[in-house]
Amino acid sequence: MGVTVKIPTQLRSVTSGESEAVVDEATTVGEVLDGLYDRFDGLKERIAEDGDLRRFVNVYVQGEDIRFLDGLETAVEDGDEVTILPAVAGG
Amino acid sequence: MPATALQCKECHAEYPLEARYVCENCFGPLEVAYDFTGLNADELRRRIQAGPLDIWRYADFLPFEQPPKTALAAGMTPLVKADRLAKKLGIGEVWVKNDAANPTHSFKDRVVTVAIAKAQELGYGVVACASTGNLANAVAAHAAAAGLDSYVFIPSDLEEQKVLATGVYGTKLVAVRGNYDDVNRLCTQISGDRDWAFVNVNMRPYYSQGSKTLGFEICEQLGWTIPDRIVAPIASGSLFTKIARGIDEWRQVGLVEGELPTMNGSQALGCSPVAEAFEQGWDACKPQKPDTIAKSLAIGNPADGPYAVELARNTGGGVDSVTDEEIVEGIRLLAETTGIFTETAGGVTTAVLRKLAERGDIGADERVVVVITGEGLKTLDVVRGTFETHEIEPSLASFESTVPEHVGAAA
Q1: What is the structure's pLDDT at B126?
Q2: Is the pLDDT assigned to residue B226 strictly greater than 80?
Q3: With an 8 Å Cβ cutoff, is A54 touching chain B?
Q4: So what's the pLDDT on residue B411?
Q5: What value does the mean pLDDT take over residues B89-115?
Q6: Which residue of B has its CA nearest to A6?
Q7: Which residues of chain A neighbour B31 with C-beta distances below 8 Å?
Q8: Tens digits of per-residue pLDDT, B190-206?
Q9: Do B63 and B118 meet the contact criterion of CB atoms below 8 Å apart?
Q10: How far is the C-alpha of B157 from the C-alpha of B163, rounded, in Å?
Q11: Which helix (H) or strand (E) holds A91?
């Protein structure tokens, strides 16, 4: 069943309007994102820079910010939900 | 109106002035860009002085064609010279900008006034927010005054006073079982799917403009001069950076002269991602799980954290943090020396001022402004047990035998 990724509205112009994508056979958040980058042209440069996420991008696994876990090395399992969101809201 | 576009703070891409907050190229935050060329400082000053006694006197620096008509006015709060506080701390000159004197008793009235006026201009019928409490009060009140529906999202463990002072306005109040960062994440998700004006999500570029007016007022109230140092609280870092942004805009148009103030940010130790980034020399903040009595500052993942660090560094200032005990002492210190009762956020700011004074960071000839952002009645519980009440019988004998000669801590 793979890992489900929630795509924020700001990235849907490069995902043909898709708000969700399923990535199979990924064991870490980094691999999930690589799977998305392979599928959607233009996605990588928007949210990543020099092999890491840009500083205003938040990624969550099951609702927890990956910076509280193992970052891009955070393990994921089939059925997990990964959420990408802009980090510039609130306060 | 010199507002020209929304511009990305990271890559400088431009977008039209609509309900939008994220750069689609790099995910950086958008802010309102202005073109101030051709503005005359004397004319601007005259327009400001002839304007209303609220933030709309600064309409030339806010993103509207015409000053909107708003039902609840915000701003023009007192700037009080605090000689007894200065003396107690052994420093030269301190002023307290008391932003508790706003319609819903915090600086949030400034940002919400601007955000809701913009939401109405853009045709929204529903406004919403993710709040640590003060914003909840302001959004609920201003939406009621404007006749708009509102949804207010708060962490479920918020102080009761702030919950009550929000629900009373008839908003749809949603208490989320989680901390502020959970509430913020949820609201960011909801804002992608609903046609609502979230004041601090999709309306954030406009909302944050309201905080500039604190910088304008401080300078105007000091006779069109820039103070040497400003001590202000940091939650998301928006207020802190926009105070300086406002002063910088006035320098650009010639309304004031001189350097930016030394900017000192204040955080609670139990939620100090910006202080940590400053101390460690990082250019981004590592998120934290907040655990502090200063709930209005309890943002563990601050959106403007990197910019707050940069501002503190560039102005020779800093970002300090204080313990919960020091926060309560700060509340008492401000109350006992100025007669101003502030909530926990103001306790944080006052405690950081004290720390700076004790460390010898403040020069003897400096003019310092402390920004007090909210009212003490909102966080009453924290001062419980910090003083003694002398309960007596209604007789002279009981009074004389029970109450000591010198009551209170006046010095």
Answers
A1: 98
A2: yes
A3: yes
A4: 47
A5: 98
A6: B189
A7: none
A8: 999 999 999 999 999 99
A9: yes
A10: 10
A11: none
User: Distance (Å, rounded) from C-alpha B12 to C-alpha B28?
Assistant: 9
Nearest-angstrom CA–CA distance, B143 and A80:
38
B98 part of a folded domain: yes
Beta-bridge mates of residue B34: B3
Is residue B344 within 8 A of residue B69, CB to CB? The reply is no
Structural domain containing residue A29: 3-86
How many structural domains comprise chain A?
A: 1
Rg (CA), chain A: 12
Asked if B235 and A55 come within 8 Å (Cβ–Cβ), the reply is no
Query: What do you get for the CA distance between the two ends of chain B, in Å?
Result: 51
- 3 state SS for B182-246: HHHHHHHHHHHHCCCEECCCCCHHHHCHHHHHHHHHHHHHCCCCCCCEEEEECCCCHHHHHHHHH
Partners of A8 on chain B (C-beta within 8 Å) are 188-189, 192
In a domain, A91, yes or no: no
Count how many pairs of residues, chain A against chain B, have C-beta atoms within 8 Å.
Answer: 95
CATH code (residue A40): 3.10.20.30
As for the ipTM of the complex, it is 0.94
From residue B251, alpha-carbon distances to B4, B164, B225 in Å are 19, 42, 10
Of A11, A63, A67, the CB nearest to B286: A67
CATH code of the domain containing B275: 3.40.50.1100
Contact B261, B229 (CB under 8 A): yes
Closest Cα in chain A to B238? A91
Give yes or no for A85 touching B (CB within 8 A): yes
Identify which of A65, A83, A88 has the shortest CB distance to residue B287.
Answer: A65
Helix crossing, B209-221 with B108-121: angle to 10°? Answer: 130
Residue B121 lies in a domain: no
Q: What is the mean pLDDT of residues B352-370?
A: 98
Q: Which two tokens stand for residue A7?
A: 């795509």
Instruction: Name the nearest CA neighbour of B103 among B94, B116, B85.
Output: B116
Question: B5 in helix, strand or coil?
Answer: strand
**A67 in B contact zone (CB under 8 Å):** yes
For residue B220, is it within any domain? Answer: yes
pLDDT in tens, chain A (91 residues): 899 999 999 999 999 999 999 999 999 999 999 999 999 999 999 999 998 999 999 999 999 999 999 999 999 999 999 999 999 999 8
C-alpha closest to that of B117 among B140, B146, B144, B137:
B146
**For B344-372, what is the mean pLDDT?**
98
Q: Which of B22, B182, B184 sits opposite A10 (nearest CB)?
A: B22
